[in-house]
Design a protein that fits this description.
By secondary structure, the protein is α/β, with parallel strands linked by helices. The protein is built from 13 helices and ten strands. An eight-stranded parallel beta barrel has the order 1-2-3-4-5-8-9-10, surrounded by nine helices. Helix 3 packs across helix 4 (65-80) and helix 10 (251-267) runs antiparallel to helix 13 (300-322).
């Protein structure tokens, strides 16, 4: 199945909202995470929502976010052609200062959706900035996600907010009407960065109130939870009944990546690091001693295989929790 568009993503979210399940929107910073996610989606027969931020694009492009996005987008498209499920790419937490990247995304069809984050601004400026992106994307095949309310913590290598400000349901109606966004990210107690699910005071009642207020206003819009890495399963499942169709995960994958790599290298340190008393002669590959490192252990592909498997297992568990398993709209497999 090829890399899919905003119109097809809209169908995926619509089906999920109507049936009470959601999708884990998984941030990608490099190929091992991406391939692990692809394998999880194939095993679970789930459509796959990927995300890339400005900083991840910049990292991939050696300082140039547009170059990085072009490279990652094309890489995703090539990989997606080998699988039988829908693959979507969302641009995560782009700001007004990223308008050149936003324009390139729209003009070159590099993604399926764009999340414009002006939540730090006043309500009026948030509406203005979000509307500017919606207007620019008009006529393209991209969905636009906006955010109302402030989520505590660190996202995309910068502090999102020192404290949280919950989304007001009536303001949510006004915001959606004035901006024309396709998805709405809400602040209901989640946190960006490292957070402990048992300590997150998730306001499920507020999620329900936001969804019902929007619905009563004739706005059947999917809701999004940012900063959901710390949610425990019971919390995640709770919000799926109230219009939440997209749950963002980044920090969780980063930690699993680090742990998989660390555990691997600790396990193989004796075949990579010279023993005590042996000169650390890297340039000569320890020519003055009988000891040599084991190439099969320090080959980057060895640790990459472990990382990919760890990401696959983590993502598969999260897809189960979100309820997207066996529900791909674009697979020929029997669900």
């Amino acid at each position: 199945m090829s890399f899919l568009t905003g119109a097809e993503l809209d169908k995926v979210y619509g089906k999920a909202k109507g049936s009470g399940y959601g999708f884990i929107a998984s941030n990608v910073a490099e190929p091992n995470i991406l391939i692990g996610l692809m394998r999880a989606a194939e095993e679970k027969n789930s459509d796959l929502v990927l995300q890339i931020s400005n900083s991840a694009s910049k990292f991939a492009g050696n300082g140039d976010p547009i170059t990085g996005l072009r490279a990652i987008s094309q890489y995703i498209k090539e990989l997606a052609s080998n699988y039988e499920f829908g693959v979507f790419l969302n641009m995560d937490h782009l700001k007004e200062s990223n308008m050149e990247l936003i324009k390139a995304t729209v003009d070159e069809d590099l993604a399926s959706s764009i999340m414009i984050d002006a939540s730090k601004e006043s309500f009026e400026d948030n509406v203005r900035i979000t509307r500017k992106v919606v207007d620019y994307a008009k006529g393209s095949d991209l969905l636009i996600e906006g955010e109302l309310g402030k989520i505590k913590g660190v996202e995309d290598e910068e502090t999102a907010s020192a404290e949280a400000f919950y989304t007001d349901p009536d303001e949510a109606v006004e915001y959606v009407k004035k901006t024309g966004v396709d998805l709405l990210a809400v602040s209901v107690g989640t946190q960006h960065g490292v957070s402990k699910g048992r300590d997150i005071e998730l306001n499920v009642d507020l999620v329900e109130e936001i969804d019902s207020t929007l619905t009563q206003a004739g706005l059947e819009i999917p809701l999004v939870l940012h900063g959901s890495s710390g949610l425990v399963e019971e919390q995640l499942v709770q919000v799926l009944d109230y219009g939440v169709c997209k749950l963002n995960k980044d920090t969780r994958y980063q930690y699993e990546y680090a742990r998989a790599a660390l555990d691997y290298y600790l396990e193989h340190k004796d075949s990579i690091l010279p023993p005590e008393g042996v000169n650390d002669d890297r340039e000569g590959f320890f020519s003055d001693t009988d000891w040599s490192p084991n190439k099969s252990d320090f080959d980057p592909r060895a640790v990459s295989r472990v990382i990919r498997e760890a990401i696959k297992e983590t993502a598969g568990d999260l897809f189960e929790q979100a309820g997207s398993v066996g529900k791909s709209l674009y697979s020929s497999k029997v669900n």
